[in-house]
Model the fold of this input.
Amino acid sequence: MKNIEMVICGLGGVGREFIHLLTERQTEIETKYKLRLRLTAAVDIGGAAINTTEIGLDCDALLSHIKGGLSIETFGKFGRPGLSGVDVIAESGAKVMIETTPTNLVDGGVAKGHVFTALENGMEVVSANKGPFVLFYDEVHNLAAKNNCGLHISAATAAALPTLDVGRICLAGTRLISVEGILNGTTNYILSEMCIKGTSYDEALNKAQEMGIAETNPSYDVEGKDTANKIVLICNRLFGTSKTLNDINIKGISKISLNDINEAKKAGKVIKLIGIAKKNGEQINLSVGPKFLNEDHPLSKVCGSEKAITYDTDTMGKITVMGGKSSQVGAAAALLKDLINAFV
Done:
């Protein structure tokens, strides 16, 4: 049995769902994978809770405390007001840092310090946060290699959809020609409603917001920025590049009309927002934008808020994976999956 001590930074929806999965699946994980996962510290805006003994933090009690509207730094004798994530990571002696704070694509936010400090202390990093990896990929990758640490970012590259797992493990030994993905559930839902039901863009967006699929300010999704971040990360991990958002042409779906949808139908095509990383000689070209796909294209059949990714390889041909839950639970499950795979 391996004992794995963890620090989690960020106790929003994804962080809470991750802790819930730890408690719910504890016995199963110990039996099936021979891993004893122990949460020794949790960090949020106001401070932290720490218990570095072999017992660790009581996850059930911690969740009840947080869901009751109480802050982490008031969690009994374990609460530490004002203690930062960087301080906790440096002092914890844990093997893993779980990063679930909100993504900041301006300067990386607090997650940047969390990731760099964890790597400097020889910890595995499991992250749902895109910021540090999109903005500082070279620095993060080099520091991880220097300190022999793993970077596990499936939850940041389409959450429950196994993008990196398939590309890195199932396609090992192949040469990738291209990667095409529907990587944002919100935009795919909107386009599906327009195509299948004849709903206008505005009506489909409003419905997505009412259902909680789209944010109140949906620009990050509908203007293609979320897809761009994900395809940049996928490209860097699978093609070994150092791409940034400056290397990608981005176009969203906000200008797509019902007339566009109907014209596509007449031509036997369907419109999808696609992120593409394609090899062209020694170069890798990136793009995000609405694409007119033939009806026999594997991504044309992806409906609703589901996502999908197609790999074109030299020896295995084209392989498509689709589905995956677009939710906080799905993202938390991807974190847990990465954590387990890092040690089995």
